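Can't attach files on this board, so I'm pasting raw text. These are the components:
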Amino acid sequence: MDAMIKTPVAPSAPRIAREKPLKIKARNVDVYYGDKHAINDLSIDIPDSAVSAFIGPSGCGKSTFLRSINRMNDTIPSCRITGNVEIDGRDIYDKTLDVVQLRARIGMVFQKPNPFPKSIYENVAYGPKIHGLAKNKAELEEIVVTSLKKAGLFEEVKDRLDHSGTSLSGGQQQRLCIARAIAVNPEVILMDEPCSALDPIATARIEELIDELRQNFCIVIVTHSMQQAARVSQLTAFFHLGNLVEVGDTDDIFTSPRDKRTQDYITGRFG
Amino acid sequence: MSGTYFVILAVLVGAGFLLGAQRARGLRSDTGSALHSLPAYHGLYIAAAVLTVMMAIYVMAAPLAEHYVLRQAFGAFDPSIIAEQLQRDATLRDIQNLVAGSYQGEPSDTLKAGAAAYASASSLAFWGLNGLGVLAGLAVIFWGLSRIQPELRARNQFEHFVKYVLLACSAVAVLTTIGILLSVVFEAAQFFSKISPIDFLFGLQWSPQTAMRADQVGSSGVFGIVPLIVGTLLITIIAMLVAGPLGLFSAIYMAEYATPPIRAIVKPILEILAGIPTVVLGFFAALTVAPLIRSSGQSLGFDVASESALAAGLVMGMMIIPFVSSLSDDVINAVPQSLRDGSYAMGATKSETIKKVVLPAALPGIVSAFMLAISRAIGETMIVVMAAGLAANLTFNPLAAVTTVTVQIKTLLVGDQEFDSAKTLSAFALGLVLFFFTLALNYIALKIVQRYREQYD
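---
Top answer:
Structure tokens for the assembled complex are below.
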């Protein structure tokens, strides 16, 4: 019975996709910025409760596809998208779907930490407040504290929750942004090169955090660092010039890539 | 005298530049060694030195020369004439006319002697000043040429010169402000020696008419500025009630909602509004808005004066909308897109994002836009003169005629006035009050901005 409801998975599909339920399904996605064809006929299955990494050289379309998952590309007037993206079997580009509610279910962490110029507390409380997730002050505080704890930031900031979010260091700011994203209890967390502006110690801290969060969230991360992809992800997708070249279990991609371009990229021959 | 000097100055500065640059180029081709600075900098180095020295000589020597000429010219006259400012000026005009050959009537012997002394002293001063300038300029050029070597750091030296030129330019603005303040303070001090500051600042009645001659029947004048301050505040508040929301909301529309083509049309049109002369807006207020308010007010059963604070305030509000909208639009645009993206990604709508993220981040700029608009409203005269009247009524009723500080200053100083009566001098006291009023507003605005600033980087 159960097996009939689940989307059938081909035997050649990655192991992680067979072990975990399907979360995001994209079919024949094309994205254009004006005349520029940024993504060409992309299809991918992204599993729940796992970390999926998008790797590839700059301008290969990995960030563009990431921003198509929570429809952030809608804010760019020249952007046009065709094809089909489903989350839990629901088409997110359906006309009747409310984009604001969609984004409330999908957290996003950006390349450069972008805490709001408000207090640490207000930064985390922002999402719960606009979506009415807390009935009273005590509940709101509970959400803020839990989110900061999950993001591994609470111990460092518990005495100064009223200080400005922008007064924190870069790594702390990025963890604050993660706390802000998980405060609304999303199902998916998108991360667009979350460590590219951070030093190695702060990066290690975020990577640990990503590994912990994997238990409860579907995480998609875009990264320029192949080591990072190898360390944190279970599924890796390699993009090149707007094409999705290869998807597979992270172990397989880094040890026995099937495509020559993937091999060239991970061995450092280009990119 | 000065014209010739500055022509010489320009010629020597140009010559210094050309000679310096040429010498440096020659040095490069002769010795083949690399220069520390480009030849043009050697030229600029000499030109700057010539300019500095010759300007310094002019600033010091020109007053001395003038003083010498006057002393020679007045030598033949009775010292009592020289002591009296008016007579002294009249005599000097006579002497100058006589020298120029345009003197009417038969000059006295003393005047002739004075004119002769004036003419010879003038020519001596002319040759002395210009000769000194030429000598100094040439000396500086030769000194500069002798200093030109490959190692000379002409580029760095010129950088110092630039720094001082820029410093001097900003000093002009600061000194002018101080000068304006001082000129107002001295006149106001004369006023306060006639009228007590307490009566002035806290008096509830304003009636500046005073008798100009002893035989005239007239009141002695009452100078209480409270009605003027209240009138100013009333009109400013009305204007800001119009311009604040309209300006801010149109800024939000232009910055966040308008598509680029719409923005390209709307923004210039709004800025044209700022370019309409206030006198035109004034008769719009007096001939169109005021009668409209009066007739609609009367049909509702209100008693409306034909000139009302409301008419002036409404039109003034229209006038300052562009200040609020244009500046607010700029600061809203300066808020980083990453903050908006962060908010949208949290599932916030556009208006939630603007209300909770964009506007708080842009607040300091928006407050300063409002403060600029308020200063503009307080200082505006023409619209109020034409639409709000001159009656110094102490009232908060926007339908009554009121007057403002600036209107009274204008009224007090227009036409033939005695310059030592309390009536005329009160204009300067009003100016001083206005100065401190806007100063206080700016200070408050600064504090507000510091208190509520939400820093983004």
